[in-house]
Design brief:
304 residues; alpha/beta; UDP-N-acetylmuramoyl-L-alanine:D-glutamate ligase; 37% helix; binds adenosine monophosphate
C-alpha cells in the first residue's frame, strides 16, 4: 500500500443557493480517496460507517481501486452526519448539524498491509484518531499530510496542536489558518504554523486558489474560474486527495513537485464543485483531468 487515508465517510445534507441535497454521500476520506485514485491504485482507507451506508457506494470506491480493509462497518449504528448551508458567495458556510454517531467511539485499526505505507493522509476527523493512526504505522512515512477544520479548533485545540506537531504538511483554509495562529496576515500565520511543526503549509482560499509555503518559499495557484459552482462541499478534501495523490505518483516531496501537486489538487477540486456531492467525480474521466491541467498551465503562464 502506498497511500493510507483516514477521515470521515459520511452522509451530508447540503444547502446552496442552487438547491438542497439531503443525505447524500460525503465525508473527508471519501473525497480524498476518490481524488487520489486518479494517481495511484495502491491506496487504502481507514474509517467507520454504520450499516445505513449504501453498499453500492462502497462498491464504487472499490472499483476505483480503493482498498476498504480498513473501513469498519458497525451493525445497528448510524454513519457520521453533517449538514451545512452555504452563503450566497459560496465561499463561506455555516455548519447546521454535526452528528458524530459511529465516530464517537471509533478505534481505528490499521490492517497490516497499510502499516508500511510511505504516504499518510490524515483527513478531517478527531485529532486524537489522527494521532492514533500515526502511532499504528510500523515505519515513519516519507510524508504525512494533515487536513482539519475550525470545528476541531473550537472544541479540541490542545489535542489538535499535539497532532499538528507530528505532521509534515498541513492543509487548511484561510480562516482556519488565522484561527490557529492568531495572525491575520497569512504570511505571518504561515510563520507561526511552521513553528508548530509542519514544514509545509497549504492555505486553501476557495475560489481564490491556494497558497503553498515551503521552507521560506511561496507559490500561489489560482482556482479555475468556473461558470457554475453548484456545491463546494468536499472541495478542500478533493484538493488534498489530488495533492497527495500526485506526490505519491511522483514519489517526491520537492518544492517543484509540491507546486505541481497544488495544481493537480486544484484541478480535481474544480470538478468536485460542479455538481452536488460526489456526482461529478463519479463520472470524471482521466482525460478530462489531463485536459484541465493543461488549461491551468495556460491560465497561469506569461512571459516578460
Ligand atoms: P470540505 O468541504 O472539504 O471542508 O469537506 C466537507 C466534508 O467534510 C463533508 O462531506 C462532511 O461530511 C465532512 N465533515 C464535516 N464536518 C466534519 C468534521 N467535524 N469532521 C470530519 N469531517 C467533517
Amino acid at each position: 500500500m502506498k497511500l493510507v487515508t483516514v477521515g470521515t465517510v459520511a452522509f451530508d445534507t447540503i444547502e446552496t443557493p442552487y438547491g438542497k441535497a439531503e443525505r447524500v454521500v460525503g465525508g473527508a476520506a471519501t473525497y480524498i480517496s476518490i481524488a487520489a485514485s486518479y494517481f495511484t491504485k495502491e491506496l487504502g482507507l481507514v474509517s467507520v460507517v454504520g450499516d445505513d451506508f449504501p453498499n453500492e457506494e462502497l462498491k464504487y470506491m472499490q472499483k476505483r481501486g480503493i482498498n476498504l480493509d480498513g473501513l469498519q462497518i458497525k451493525e445497528g449504528e448510524k454513519s457520521f452526519f453533517w449538514a451545512g448551508r452555504y452563503h450566497n458567495n459560496m465561499n463561506s458556510r455555516d455548519t447546521l448539524d454535526t452528528q458524530l454517531n459511529v465516530l464517537a467511539d471509533f478505534k481505528p485499526k490499521l490492517p497490516t498491509s497499510y502499516r508500511n505505507a510511505k504516504y499518510l493522509m490524515l483527513g478531517n476527523l478527531t485529532p486524537e484518531i489522527q494521532a492514533k493512526v500515526i502511532g499504528q504505522m510500523k515505519s515513519k512515512p516519507k510524508l504525512i499530510v494533515m487536513d482539519t477544520m475550525n470545528f476541531w479548533m473550537d472544541i479540541a485545540m490542545p489535542a489538535l496542536k499535539k497532532t499538528i506537531k507530528k505532521v509534515d504538511v498541513l492543509t487548511i483554509n484561510d480562516e482556519e489558518a488565522r484561527q490557529l495562529s492568531g495572525e491575520y496576515s497569512l504570511v505571518n500565520a504561515a510563520k507561526a504554523i511552521h513553528k508548530m511543526g509542519p514544514k509545509v503549509l497549504v492555505i486553501k482560499k476557495g475560489e481564490h486558489g491556494a497558497l503553498l509555503f515551503y521552507n521560506g518559499k511561496m507559490f500561489y495557484a489560482p482556482a479555475m474560474p468556473l461558470a457554475q459552482v453548484y456545491d463546494p462541499t468536499g472541495a478542500g478534501d478533493t484538493f488534498a486527495g489530488g495533492f497527495i495523490g500526485y506526490l505519491v505518483k511522483a514519489n517526491s516531496t520537492t518544492f517543484e513537485n509540491m507546486k505541481r501537486a497544488v495544481i493537480y489538487g486544484s484541478t480535481l477540486a474544480s470538478f468536485c464543485v460542479e455538481e452536488f456531492s460526489i456526482a461529478r467525480l463519479k463520472r470524471l474521466k482521466q482525460s478530462e483531468v489531463n485536459k484541465r491541467v493543461k488549461e491551468f498551465e495556460k491560465l497561469t503562464k506569461f512571459t516578460m
